[in-house]
User: What shape does this take?
Amino acid sequence: MPLPAKIDYGSGALSIGASFTVTFSGCADARIAAAAGRLVTRLSRQTGIPMTGTAGSPTLTIECTGRSADYPALGDDESYRLDVTPSGARITAPAVWGALHGIETFTQLVEPAATGFQVPAVHIEDRPRFPWRGLMLDVSRHWMPVPVVLRNLDTMAAVKLNVFHWHLSDDQGFRVESKLYPRLQEFGSDGHFYTQSEIRQVVNYARDRGIRVVPEFDMPGHTLSWFPGYPDLTAGRGPFEIGRHFGVFDPVMDPSRESTYEFLDGFIGEMAGLFPDAYFHVGGDEVNGKQWAQSPGVQAFARQHGFADTKEIQLYFSRRLHEILAKHGKTMIGWDEILQPDLGPGTVIETWRNQASLADSIRAGYRGILSWGYYLDHLSPAKYHYGIDPQGGPAEQLTPEQLSRILGGEACMWSELVDAETVDSRIWPRAAVIAERFWSPASVTDVDSMYQRMQAVSRQLEWTGVQHRADYQPMLDRLSGDRRAPAVRVLADAVEALGLGPRVRARQYTTDVPLNRMVDAARPESESVRALELAAARLDTAALRRAFTVWAANDAVFQPLAENNALLAELRPVSKNLAELGTIGLKALDYLSTRRRAPRGWVKVQLDRLERMSKPEAEVSLAAVRPVKMLLERME
Amino acid sequence: MPLPAKIDYGSGALSIGASFTVTFSGCADARIAAAAGRLVTRLSRQTGIPMTGTAGSPTLTIECTGRSADYPALGDDESYRLDVTPSGARITAPAVWGALHGIETFTQLVEPAATGFQVPAVHIEDRPRFPWRGLMLDVSRHWMPVPVVLRNLDTMAAVKLNVFHWHLSDDQGFRVESKLYPRLQEFGSDGHFYTQSEIRQVVNYARDRGIRVVPEFDMPGHTLSWFPGYPDLTAGRGPFEIGRHFGVFDPVMDPSRESTYEFLDGFIGEMAGLFPDAYFHVGGDEVNGKQWAQSPGVQAFARQHGFADTKEIQLYFSRRLHEILAKHGKTMIGWDEILQPDLGPGTVIETWRNQASLADSIRAGYRGILSWGYYLDHLSPAKYHYGIDPQGGPAEQLTPEQLSRILGGEACMWSELVDAETVDSRIWPRAAVIAERFWSPASVTDVDSMYQRMQAVSRQLEWTGVQHRADYQPMLDRLSGDRRAPAVRVLADAVEALGLGPRVRARQYTTDVPLNRMVDAARPESESVRALELAAARLDTAALRRAFTVWAANDAVFQPLAENNALLAELRPVSKNLAELGTIGLKALDYLSTRRRAPRGWVKVQLDRLERMSKPEAEVSLAAVRPVKMLLERME
Assistant: This one.
């Protein structure tokens, strides 16, 4: 995952053992050498076989047929070929970027076999469908230390994502050291910011993995954290404080004063030197216009220029930004609120509000990328994201030339309700599915195959160091106070966490609210419930009966654990429902396996009970309802 | 864990929340400040509550009543008092070392409560029973990178161990950079060694946690890795290679040549500067004497000095080492083979062969520490180690003065069959139980209480960063090839790994054999089987029935997974036995719950079947036999 463009299986397999080695031919590139070293380390972890690399003939040969630039660029040739035979493997690529992708594909093909580990014989020809395949990470709402970023870059590389969109400032925190304007981080970050040396480390780390780093400094809105240090940037009245709540705040930058643009010219100039990528994201979303409407200065400025509304004022601001960026050699990218005529040549629009907006951007002559439909913080099931195509929906009406200006998309991880501990499990494995949407041919749409491969890749990704699976049990142990409490795990496996929308409606969240509850530990999609849905589909009564028996008995063990325990107490009704579900499921299995008919109306009554149980409690939904519902519907 | 010397619970509890803060009084010690910072970070992870530390009144006050040296020393006052009331907590200690212990105790007391997290009101007066409470880690047989060492130092500190005995050289690898004799690491380490800067990092890291670092360079035997670089150190004929197998090799140092002592004088002088501790371990174990007997030079030397045997030759060598160590300001410590009269003043003997040898060392006038009975690599159950007292057995005959020369003991982690991935789970949580034996009063011996607290501390230790629990599921995923395979987990939970002895008899192990099998993933003691033993003791039929049902059904799911899978295939008979056990257990429950008598002879037949199942297969034993056996014995 992502599935290659072309794959033909051969016969036999290449053994992967202690003597596994890699050599290069035509690649005088330190990145390939480093990637080969990482490959050996990864395979060694993945198989548990110490690989000393001291053997005679190489197992994998990497051949680059051309030279590559130092830093990746939009539109680079990322293609590669991978040939595996029982006697060896070869990756051929025109540039280092494709060779890196080929290495990741090779890693994913390693499987246990009758005599150890192997890679099946295969011929692969692969290239990406879209050149812009991104992951956006918000490090403002909750701080993400450098190791979190680095491990996610490794995982991005593993699934061939090639743009790390780094949302570096927002109302809740300004996260980059500016030497020119040090009060930005001093007063805007609570001490949580990346030094310039750390930024360089991340950029180099990404580059070595074929990943571009596109920084985002969101403006003129979502800028509360700029103002404690530089209150003159806004037309509003201070004193200003970093935002602790979430949502859209009134204070925004003052577009009417030249001093604002002088500041931004200096700031963007400094950042342009720090981030080598050609693209620079200036945000531009969610300006509510209230402050501009109330500011006599801004109103006078608007009258003077003949601006009719907030949109026109923002267009002026965007154009000025475009000029400043051009001066510093950068191409502008912004959220779809900036969409207006004459934004300036080259501008890229990132669409988050709806898919029609992407088509509008393209028709307006811009290039575009799609983020709508790929919001990981909504905790939607993988199949939802998988079903959304950057060139689908309203884009289907576009001409081929217009379609070619849809560059790809980005999975977005906003961090209102995730922190450094939980962020990995909210990104992975679902972002791998989005990566497949961006990389693989549009015809690759089989959901069952996707889920099967997603679960496999989820386990493989653990060897990259990402913590999306590792943090689950410790978070559950925390809930039960260090006791051995399998009942908490049974319940956790049976529920799914709600996403941003219902959670912020359920309670008042701020940046300081602990994210230590069941909803934070529970997965966006339950693997075990999915297994039971498959079991229900093929009526595997043994597997279903085992699960239902455990559920039915779980509540009696769970309830005592919840006594005097604030974190478990809110789950009491959920646990009770799970036990009921187990009982209903067992009863349904009895009817189905004995082929007796249930009493008239019984199924309807049960379905009504399930309907009631489907209502979320404690910000989790009882996913376990689904397989039981499938059984009941079979009986109807 | 370890249980404090004196603990009195009060009423009420101190809430632990986002406003948790620490202050010091009388402690102008950077170590306390750093430890307080770590405490806040740890509590924040353990509770999931972001702690900004910006509150008004402090939650925990630490008061040091005296000054401490820069580096810990044997016999330092490690006592502390901890008072917790609903309004605050206070640690009082005469030295930084006790304050550090008090902080760890405080951490362990944090528990979930009806309104969040809390520490119960308590008055604790605590001090260690023994001053030498060690963990020995062998980094020669398998290489342990710096992060492995660091995370284990954190965990040692958490259970109040205060000596890190670092076994830095053995036949299979020389692991320290010598600038004076660089061929030691160049030809003796396969590139896996600690630079001097890394050694300093580890020593400082340990010191900041109140842990002394005692280096061991094992000689004159277990020195194969010295000879590829410096063949003149041995009387044998080269060329020499690093050892790949395990056991006792013939080549040892040549005690007859002055050049050997000149070399060691230089080397020990260099290492004495690197390791500030007053003690220096010279090994001295397992010299088989073969090479000395065959060497004309050594034999001439022995005749000249009138040495009758290997022991007398080694005594000469040990005395010379004692002189060299004394010159460099170090006190000698060695394994019990060096025990001879007149070894030199101050010598400490570390006993590994049997407990009588410790008493012998003491009677001979030396000080001693006990390692026999604390060999973690044997994978004995925690209760075995718990039952061994450094002052017990033959030592009970000693006088009070003699007993005072028993300084404590060390848990030993030899690394023939563990690597960086598996070592944590072989050390923890069992080493915590040994730590309790060394710290807590001799009267603390309740095994049930120990297991209950060990399991709690095992979960808490995860927050220190040690991987003893985290690596379990990924290792199982590796076995099943990234598929979701709960049946493999069910089997793994039901077995226990065999220790060094039976494993090296089962197959020919070398340093290159992969440690990636079920036996490497399986725990030394199964938590879930222990839970079932407790359930069997109180006849909790519901819990037993659930487990037995899962076991009985597991084999049908497991066997297909084992097809074409070398790592799972060896477990097929174990899985079959587990299913049989489940069936027998269910049958036994039926008899017990219906109070019907089983047919004559039925119990005997089942017990015989269990006896056969108790025979290890694939280097694991089927721990699940135990609770079923308990039920059957109840029926007899």
